[in-house]
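Task: encode each sequence below as structure tokens.

Item 1
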Amino acid sequence: MSTDLSIHAQLQAIKARLQAEASPEAGKSAAYFIPGIQKQYGVRMPVLNEIANLFKSGGLPLADALWIEGSHEEQLLAARIIGKLGRKDPEAVLERIERYSAGINNWAVCDALGMQAIHGIREKYQVELFALAHRLAMAESIWQRRLALVLVQWYTRHTHLVPEIEALVTVLENDEAYYVQKAISWIKRNLSKKK
């Protein structure tokens, strides 16, 4: 999509596409598999991937506008767009992840922020991501605590980081939140593959 379009025009084009691609079946499926969705269009993931690629030139301003709009799909798009910008502005991506984390209301958006948004920074910004994970582990929000674990999930493949990952898991091990426990199980399963 042309960078000549204003953020407002890009946002309106995205909304029009989301409305055109919405389906009741996709909406029902998302509501079933992702409890907590508060506002959604009902658009399938392949379409969201296509939209993110078309509008990635909107950059951080577009991602911010999408996040503020607040539908499930718009927040997933925001996470995908910032993930495409990581190499250009890693500090801004880290800041967005932390800022956006306060508005997470379901596991799918949480996991998109923790996996897709870090795509461009995860290799060179491991120290900063672990520091963010440790801050989020202390948050009141269950989604921020889950995000703490999701942020480090990719690193389970690196043996030298296992002690630090296990330390983070220990901090959250007695957390009673279902989705935090699911993330702990996911990490432990990944770590057990290393043994």
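Item 2
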Amino acid sequence: MALMIIAMLFVGVTMVASLHLRPLLIDLHRPLGIAILLLVVLRLYNRLRHRPPPLPADLPAWQVLAAKASHWMLYALMLAMPLIGWAMLSAGGYPIVLGGGLHLPPIVPHTPALYAALRNAHSLLAYVLFATVLMHVGAALFHLWVRRDGVFQAMARGKD
């Protein structure tokens, strides 16, 4: 799932920057966003049902707080990004077509001003998500190379 999200961020940047690749990337971006939304809902459900492994007992309190806050920030952003994207397209009057010709219904009314606001929010939150992912990777590498406390191994197995 992490690779999907990182790929999605790069697809989004390339989609905006390249007129030549834009149509192809839009056709990839929309269904991938919906797939991420569904996977995040499942992952969040699993996270709420099963506690994550405990953090090391000697971890400073500020790092425990940062770890918990960053996890919930990632979940919030992973939910918000596709929902805002869907709402943005709905407000712009653009269809969301998935494989097999399946059309998703609009979730907000067609409103140009709302489209503009949601487009700005989607772009801004993409930067916030990218920064949060980079901090998460940095923290993982800190646990691997500096603390050597097994947290990275748990994350790599998907048990964070």
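Check on item 2: The chain has a mean pLDDT of 92. The longest strand covers residues 96-97.
End of task.
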